[in-house]
Write a structure and sequence with these properties.
Layout (H helix, E strand, L loop, with lengths): L4 H8 L18 E5 L2 E4 L4 E4 L2 H4 L8 H13 L11 H13 L5 E6 L2 H18 L7 E5 L8 H5 L4 H4 L10 E3 L13 H19 L3 E6 L3 E2 L5 E2 L3 H13 L2 E5 L29 E4 L11 E5 L1 H5 L20 H16 L2 H15 L9 E7 L2 E6 L1 H4 L3 H11 L2 E2 L6 E4 L7 H19 L16
Parallel strand pairs: 3-15, 5-6, 5-7, 7-10, 10-11
Antiparallel strand pairs: 1-2, 2-3, 4-12, 8-9, 11-12, 13-14, 14-16
Length: 460
């Protein structure tokens, strides 16, 4: 009998974000097909993709519109280098994304994955100040609990120990400031109060070090990989004001939270009060959902002043960063098909209805004494399992229990979250909520295996 995909994979593949010593206990599922929110394994068993395959699949697997766009592009031009050449999908994608910012941001620089976009933004920030005669501005600021990727530059502005600590000697130093995570609220405090405390901490740092700080990087509204830490948009407004006052660039990492996830196409759109002029960062990073879960693609949008600072006859003053597949035509065409979805149907309004339906379906979890910090924004839901109920290896046990109930779900530590594709309807919402509650009950009634071993965080 031939070996299964799972068996072959364990012999040949080093899986990401996985302690391979544990892979035999939670073996990878051998997926062979995807349709809508479902993935199907070799045995024909289906699984609901609760995390949109690491937050990338916006409109379900095998979306007809994206499939057709890629088939058409494949016959035209799969790829050409973007140094010295250009092509229609890259140009049109850059134009349409800039238009979504009211042309405040533009000159799209293409990368491959989220960490690459962060590296691009960090390098642009450093080089911008050097080109404008402020070479002392070399430092970066990030939030506590932040995650921005796992290349060395991105890790330097990441504060998740399990990713960072092993490589700490290789990393540049960054300033860590208080997170506005609303879960930190003291009795009587609101999310806005927590955000104000975080702003005060940042103000103190800027007053001391602004002459040396190149940029602050943050995920707008949700710090995703740390456990879907959500915060009040007042923080974005006040950080923008502080950056303006102290000449510090603001980098918005929208890799996980962009493309409609938080209820607006760009999460940063929620920074402005209703009726006010829009507020924008200086650099905005996109990846994940922008290509609909089809092909690797990332990009950075910048303000015109940043772009202009690199224009010179001296080649060394240009931004010479490059990727072989930068602006890949197939990936850009997939992204255009994603934007077509948003343009041809009112996806954001439809998502508001989907979110309301699913939030209502989850209502029985709100007062569950085993859970805390139930939270939701846009198409993101999360709650934390209280420590006495989590037990050892909670994330692994929950993931395995979810498989039995047709859920592909991976908690972050003791945080259970859902970021499903934008295809939920009322019956699916009810089914998903029912299976989630049943999985929780299954895990809580288990005798936790390996009780003498410490719990390990599983990510996303």
């Amino acid at each position: 009998m031939p070996a299964s995909l799972t068996q072959r994979s364990l012999q040949a593949v080093w899986h990401p974000c996985t302690q391979m010593q544990r892979a035999a206990h939670a073996p990878p599922l051998g997926m062979v097909r995807g349709e809508g929110p479902w993935l199907f394994d070799e045995a024909g068993r289906r699984y609901f993709d609760t995390s949109s395959s690491w937050w990338v699949n916006l409109f379900g697997h095998s979306d007809v519109g994206i499939n057709n766009a890629l088939k058409d592009q494949l016959d035209r031009l799969p790829h050409v280098m973007l140094a010295g050449c250009t092509h229609s999908p890259a140009v049109e994608l850059a134009e349409r994304l800039s238009q979504r910012t009211g042309h405040v941001l533009g000159h799209c620089f293409f990368g491959s994955d989220g960490a690459s976009a962060v590296e691009i933004a960090l390098k642009m920030s450093f080089h911008y100040w050097r080109n404008t005669g402020q070479a002392d501005k070399t430092e970066f600021v990030c939030l506590r609990q932040s995650y921005h990727g796992e290349t060395l530059g991105a890790l330097a502005v990441t504060d998740v120990a399990v990713f960072r600590d092993a490589y700490d000697p290789l990393l540049m130093r960054a300033h860590l400031v208080m997170s506005p995570d609303a879960r930190q609220a003291a009795p009587g405090e609101t999310a806005a109060d927590v955000a104000q405390r975080a702003v005060a901490a940042l103000r103190t740092l800027f007053e001391m070090r602004a002459g040396h700080i190149a940029a602050i990087i943050l995920e707008p509204l949700v710090q995703a990989a740390t456990g879907m830490a959500m915060y009040d948009p007042i923080y974005l407004r006040q950080v923008r004001a502080l950056c303006d006052a102290h000449e510090v660039l603001l980098i918005a990492d929208e890799i996980a939270v962009g493309c409609g996830r938080t209820g607006t196409f760009f999460a940063f759109e929620q920074a402005a009060l209703p009726g006010e002029a829009p507020i924008w960062p200086d650099l905005l990073c996109l990846s994940k959902g922008i290509s609909g879960g089809y092909l690797p693609l990332s990009l950075v949008l910048s303000r015109p002043a940043i772009y202009a600072a690199f224009l010179d006859d001296d080649v060394a003053r240009g931004f010479l960063h490059s990727h072989s597949y930068s602006g890949n035509a197939l990936a850009c065409r997939a992204a255009l098909a994603v934007l077509d979805h948003f343009d041809s149907a009112d996806v954001l309004q439809a998502n508001r209805l989907r979110a309301a339906q699913f939030t209502q379906a989850l209502a029985r979890l709100y007062d569950d004494p085993r859970l805390e910090h139930f939270r939701q924004i846009g198409m993101i839901w999360a709650f934390d399992v209280r420590e006495p109920f989590a037990g050892p290896r909670f994330a692994e046990r929950f993931h395995l229990a979810g498989r039995v109930r047709e859920l592909l779900i991976r908690p972050i530590g003791r945080t259970v979250y859902l970021m499903p594709p934008y295809v939920l309807d009322a019956p699916l919402s009810d089914w998903l909520a029912q299976q989630l509650r049943a999985t929780l009950d299954d895990v809580f009634h288990q005798t936790p295996p390996g009780a003498d071993r410490p719990s390990e965080p599983a990510v996303a």
